[in-house]
Specification:
The complex is a heterotrimer of chains A (656), B (119) and C (215). Chain A is an all-alpha fold and 656 residues long. Chain A has helices at residues 15-37, 41-49, 54-85, 97-130, 138-157, 185-213, 226-258, 271-305, 312-326, 341-353, 355-369, 378-401, 403-409, 413-443, 449-476, 491-520, 562-568, 589-605, 609-627, 638-647, and strands at residues 555-556, 574-575, 581-584, 633-636. Residues 649-656 of chain A have low confidence and may be disordered. Chain C has 215 residues and is mostly helical. Classes of the chains: A mainly alpha (656), B mainly alpha (119), C mainly alpha (215).
Chain lengths: 656, 119, 215
């Protein structure tokens, strides 16, 4: 009845494991207690658990991302600490704990921090920038969120019941096969990726159709904000790349469960094909994360330079080119796996090519600032930090693209430094900049600038101190994923790296303090106009926070940066005629499916097949039942719309 | 403009489509069952017939055309075809290349090739 | 694509050829057309899933190890029967669409049942084929090749099973709701799915069964 779940699955075998489990359970219980004590269940149910509103869904995604950032960062601190301690000794982590830590760190940061952060920002902003009332498929949108949340739950519960994978965030067989890894760790990993993969694919479909069909009248493709273009290209990448991951992990799961021979060393299996398929997804994945970050930078730079983005059409073409080429480079993740020189060279060249459109974008951001009236909003700090640091990472990327060089740097700390150099200043700085930029739109008050800048310096200095030494260490011979180093020569640089991690910790604490201070001082920092930054795009023309229907009347657009154009012309924007508005009816079904997804995957991990079937039936039943719902919208009459607007009176841009 | 899900398909489309599909199916099956062609030309012919039937079914059964399929869907289809082809072709190229280099005979020629299974 | 709703003489002319064209409003047309588009986009992701499974199969044709070969195990006759059933079911699905979009609910339901019988026949044949392969030692655990075969053909079969569930739901909706706009919108998407599966099957018999028998 409990499958292979036993009392031994509980984390009483190590203090650190027990500590992690206790914190996870403790925080969960604390949240439940707070909700109950302050009688917030009704509010939570009405506003978040049943919502199909893209703005609320976006907020939930970002909350998940920020929580998982902390969770993943604790792993980072442990790794930096362990490596520093083990330069001259044994370190403090026992057994294969370090392996679980780096596997969890990578898996969490990519799948459950960066991806939800992106999904959240895009969810909130995209319809607003398009002049739309919602995404194309609100129910699917909520479903994507709750399935992602279910996967997050699975990863979190692996800290309490059982263990997480020790096979890295990439999970290569044969190590991740059933013979060498019969435990639950790899299964947790497989199911978390499998379920969240479906969720992300559905999100991609949603965003694509939203961009295709929900643009305001007059907003041709070449009048969309650059952020929207990056979301479109990113969503196409999602659509094309995620199926490869779904297949790869599903086949690995079949190998583990049914003893098939997809990736076994014997009986005609092909180990190398997993690596191949995984990276067919894996490389496009990182571009899918970084493109929207680039989009944020484009918006931030244009707004705070008071100028239209330089070279709009070149930026669009560069984005589309990056999208295409990103799907042609995957072999560079396994140059050393033994392909012939021709194959390696072709992929090496395609990898170098992809640096060109990215470089073009960097120049265009700089040219946008040139002769602009630059204001140093905190998001500009993150942007400038990105521009300086990311270029270093790009350069080391091109170094890796030179195959003979890669033979020396592959899987060393040099590689670790390179990809963090892309992900942290690129993806993370971009999303944090977006978070600080759009926060007032979401909540009606601005974030504290001072603490935001402190957070930036913590992160920028911390990142530099943590990862620049790793470049050197890699060239000195330190391999990646090394739990016990025993080389005192490395100690000075490892100490610097650990200090860097502490600076990043300060940066994270500063983000939390910023949030606290901003909420505390929100009365003074209210965004009364809906346009705190003198914005250029449509989202700044509506109140902060926007009413449920976003736009009382749909704007009509005739150029890029339509809101800036309207303000420049001294007049109001043009709108479609007023009319009643239709909004989706809230429903608990997406959450039910998400929770069932969690139960389903937990049951599969522990071989509780009766529960697996039950959860599957619930999911199937919910989907079939939902298909019988024809009319899932409610109408707001003209009068109700006006009343809602009056409720946000004084917070409109004056142009409605 | 009538939306695609309300447009009634035309019966002749189904007739043409079905007959063409049957023909394009019978030929390759007959070729394999009774034919005498050598392997590679046969496989090429089968692939060509498959591509043709794909087009036939798309056009006549799924009504894939400029006036019945939204433009965006045609773009999406083109992308999927292109990228599916690249993944398929790239995958086969890479893996056959690796396979070739993993064959027992190769080990002698390339000397101390201990690149192993780098990740 | 949707534009304004048709009116008056235009509508009468359109309805002559498309009896159900008068259903819905501009707003509902927009919503359902978006769902149709979304489903096309979803099918493209499914295309990539099958492309990767085909690639995986291709790679594993090197992985027969010492196990049984397809030449020994594939039955051309059975593959032909499966192909015939699926192709016929695509035709009969077209008949469902034709009847439904002519407003003929009972006829649509009849063609739906015929299509489901053909689909069930396909699945039955496939299950028998799989069971025989298992019995002859060519199950998915036999070698990399057979794992690849079962992954590709099995995934297709699973999709067909899902299509059967979708058709059953459509049948119930025909009866309970009648041929309303949302029902026809759903039928369109189920149709896309069912035809898509026949497209994948073309690939399967062309690149799996026929080459396997030839080898």
């Amino acid at each position: 009845m409990f499958g292979r779940l036993t009392f031994d699955s509980l984390p009483f075998y190590s203090i650190i494991a027990f500590g992690g489990a206790a914190i996870t359970v403790g925080v969960g219980l604390a949240i439940l207690a707070i909700l109950t004590w302050f009688r917030l269940w009704g509010w939570l149910w009405r506003n978040y658990l049943t919502t199909l509103d893209h703005k609320r869904i976006g907020i939930m995604y970002v909350v998940v991302a920020l929580v998982m950032l902390v969770r993943g960062f604790i792993d980072a601190l442990m790794m930096r600490g362990q490596q520093m301690a083990s330069a001259t000794g044994h370190g403090f982590l026992e057994g294969d704990h370090f392996q679980q830590v780096f596997s969890a760190h990578g898996t969490i940061m990519i799948f459950f921090m960066a991806t939800p952060f992106m999904a959240g920002l895009v969810n909130f902003v995209l319809p607003l920038q398009l002049g739309a009332r919602d995404v194309a498929f609100p129910f699917l949108n909520a479903l994507s969120f709750w399935l992602t949340a279910g996967s997050v739950g699975l990863v979190l519960i692996s800290l309490v019941i059982g263990v997480f994978s020790t096979a890295g965030w990439v999970g290569y067989p044969p190590y991740s096969g059933i013979e060498r890894n019969p435990g639950v760790g790899v299964d947790y990993w497989i199911w978390a990726l499998f379920i969240s993969g479906f969720a992300t694919t559905m999100t991609g479909i949603n965003f694509i159709v939203t961009i295709m069909r929900h643009r305001a009248p007059g907003m041709t493709y070449m009048r969309m904000p650059i952020f929207v273009w990056t979301v479109l290209c990113s969503s196409v990448i999602i659509l094309i790349a995620f199926p490869a991951l779904t297949v790869a992990v599903a086949l690995l799961g079949l190998d583990r469960l049914f003893l098939t021979h997809f990736f076994t060393a014997d009986h005609g299996g092909n180990l190398m094909n997993f690596t191949n398929m995984f990276w067919m997804w894996g490389h496009p994945e990182v571009y899918l994360l970084v493109l929207p970050a680039f989009g944020v930078f484009s918006e931030v730079v244009a707004t705070f330079s008071g100028k239209k983005i330089y070279g709009y059409s070149a930026m669009v073409k560069a984005t589309v080119l990056i999208m295409f080429v990103s799907m042609l480079v995957w072999l560079h993740h396994f140059f050393t796996m033994g392909a012939s020189a021709t194959v390696n060279a072709v992929f090496g060249i395609s990898t170098m090519i992809i640096g060109v459109p990215t470089g073009l974008k960097v120049f265009n951001w700089m040219f946008t600032m040139y002769r602009g009236r630059v204001r140093f909003h905190v998001s500009m700090y993150w942007t400038l930090g990105f521009m300086v640091l990311f270029v270093i990472g790009g350069a080391t990327g091109v170094m890796h693209a030179i195959v003979p060089v890669d033979y020396n740097t592959h899987n060393t700390a040099f590689l670790v430094a390179h990809f963090h150099n892309m992900l942290v200043p690129g993806v993370l700085f971009g999303f944090v900049a977006g978070y600080m930029y759009w926060f007032p739109k979401a909540f009606g008050f601005t974030l504290n600038q001072k603490w935001g800048i402190r957070a930036f310096w913590g992160w920028a200095i911390g990142f530099t101190l943590a990862f620049m030494p790793l470049y050197a260490l890699g060239l000195m011979g330190l391999p990646r994923r090394t739990a016990e180093i025993y080389n005192p020569d490395f100690l000075p640089l490892l100490i610097v790296a650990f200090i860097g991690a502490l600076c990043v910790l300060f940066g994270i604490v500063a983000l939390v303090v910023q949030l606290y201070v901003s909420i505390r001082d929100r009365a003074q920092n209210r965004d009364l106009t809906g346009d705190p930054w003198d914005g250029r795009t449509l989202e700044w023309s509506i109140p902060s926070p926007p009413p449920a229907f976003n736009f009382a009347r749909i704007p009509i657009v005739d150029q890029i940066d339509p809101f800036a154009a309207a303000k420049r012309a001294g007049g109001k924007m043009q709108y479609e005629p007023a009319g009643p508005v239709e909004l989706p009816v809230p429903t608990i079904v997406p959450m039910v499916i998400g929770v069932s997804g969690f139960v389903l995957s937990f049951a599969a991990v522990w071989y509780m097949w009766w529960l697996f079937v039950l959860a599957a039936l619930v999911m199937l039943g919910a989907v079939i039942g939902r298909s019988f719902v024809d009319n899932n919208e409610f109408r707001m009459s003209q009068r109700e719309v006006d009343a809602a607007l009056r409720g946000s009176a004084g917070r409109a841009g004056g142009v409605q | 403009m009538i939306p695609p899900y309300l447009q009634r398909p035309k019966l002749p489309d189904y007739a043409y489509g079905f007959i063409l599909a049957v023909v394009l199916t019978v030929i390759p099956f007959a070729l394999v069952a009774y034919g005498d062609m050598s392997k590679v030309p046969a496989l090429i012919l089968i692939a060509a017939l498959a591509a043709l039937q794909l087009g036939v079914q798309l056009r006549y059964f799924m009504h894939f055309s400029t006036h019945r399929t939204p433009a965006e869907a045609r773009w999406a289809f083109g992308m999927a075809l292109l990228m599916g082809g690249i993944f398929l072709g790239g995958c086969l190229w890479v893996m056959t290349d690796l396979n070739h280099r993993m064959m027992p005979g190769m080990m002698m020629q390339t000397g101390a090739m201990s690149s192993g299974m780098g990740h | 694509m949707t534009g304004a709703t048709l009116r008056g003489a235009e509508l009468r002319a359109a309805v002559a050829e498309n009896p159900m064209a008068g259903l819905g409003t501009a707003a509902s047309h927009r919503v359902h057309s978006e769902r149709a588009l979304g489903f096309w986009v979803y099918l493209m992701s499914d295309t990539i899933i099958f492309a990767v499974l085909f690639a995986n199969y291709g790679v594993l044709t090197f992985g027969m190890a010492d196990g049984p070969t397809p030449h020994e195990m594939f039955s051309l006759g059975r593959a032909a029967q499966e192909t015939a059933l699926l192709l016929l079911s695509s035709l009969t699905f077209g008949m469902i669409s034709y009847s439904a979009l002519s407003g003929q609910k009972d006829r649509a339901l009849l063609w739906l049942i015929v299509t489901m019988v053909l689909g069930a026949g396909f699945l039955a044949l496939e299950l028998t084929e799989f069971r025989e392969l298992f019995a002859k030692g060519a199950g998915p655990q036999a070698s990399g090749f057979w794992s690849g075969f079962f992954a590709l053909v099995g995934t297709h079969g699973l999709h067909v099973a899902v299509g059967m569930i979708m058709m059953a739901v459509m049948g119930v909706q025909f009866v309970v709701k009648g041929l309303t706009e949302p029902v026809l919108s759903r039928l369109y998407r189920v149709g896309l799915f069912w035809h898509f599966l026949d497209l994948v099957w073309i690939g399967i018999f062309s690149f799996v069964y026929l080459p396997g028998v030839l080898s």
